[in-house]
Amino acid sequence: MKKYAYAWITVLFFAVSIFGHWVFGWYAYVNDAAQHGQPPVFSEFAIEIARDTMENWQSEFLQLLWQVVGLAYFLYVGSPSSKENDDRMEAKLDALLRLHGGEQAENVIREIDERYLRGGSHAKPHAHGEDPIHFDPKPR
After folding, report:
1. Is 51 helix (H, G, I), strand (E, B) or coil?
2. Measuring CA to CA, which residue among 57, 63, 25 is closest to residue 42?
3. What confidence score (pLDDT) does residue 85 get?
4. For the CA atoms of 112, 116, 119, 124, what is the dihedral angle to 10 degrees?
5. Please, are residues 133 and 111 in contact by the beta-carbon 8 Å criterion?
6. Mutual orientation of helices 80-100 and 105-116 as an angle, nearest 10°?
7. Class of residue 26 by CB neighbours under 10 A (exposed 0-12, middle 13-18, buried 19+)
8. How far apart are CA 65 and CA 55, in angstroms?
9. Taking CA 48 as the corner, what is the angle to CA 43 and CA 51, rounded to the nearest 5 degrees?
10. pLDDT at residue 139, rounded to an integer
11. Distance (Å, rounded) from C-alpha 116 to C-alpha 97?
12. Facing residues of 119 across strands?
């Protein structure tokens, strides 16, 4: 539950807002029908509220969903535009390790690469609970 708290809160907000939209829409529909001297018919209301809901869904929710989730997804999978700077920085760090790491540099780089590679679609960015990688910059 804690891991997906943001998603559950979003679902709750969505459920409450759509329920409120339908309830208040029903009262508005009944009021309009009374002003025209007609009895409220639920099937007509259902068509009208479905149309209004889809208009709101399309214009607001889908647009925002695409902007937020789509951007986050492409950053996560590493689109070329989001990965460009990471690759450059990683190459610089590898070069620094090679310059100052001596004979151990390639082993350290290989160990870091193995430890922090993504496996099974899950990134492991911090390697919590594992010993840090150490090397002696001055070979003996």
Report:
1. helix
2. 25
3. 65
4. 160
5. yes
6. 150
7. middle
8. 15
9. 125
10. 54
11. 16
12. 122
Comparing CA positions, the residue from 117, 119, 122 lying closest to residue 90 is 117
Residue 122: predicted pLDDT:
46
Scan for tokens 């789509």, then name that residue.
Answer: 70
Cα-Cα end-to-end distance for the chain: 52
| Dihedral sign from CA coordinates of 132, 137, 138, 139 | positive
Kindly give the confidence (pLDDT) of every residue in the chain, 140 residues in length, as a single tens digit, with 9 standing for 90 and above. Answer: 677 888 899 899 989 999 999 999 999 999 999 999 999 999 999 999 999 888 888 777 778 888 888 777 777 666 665 555 666 778 888 888 888 887 888 888 888 877 777 444 444 455 555 565 665 655 55
Task: Show Cβ contacts of residue 115 under 8 Å, excluding neighbours closer than 6 positions.
Answer: 124, 127, 130, 133
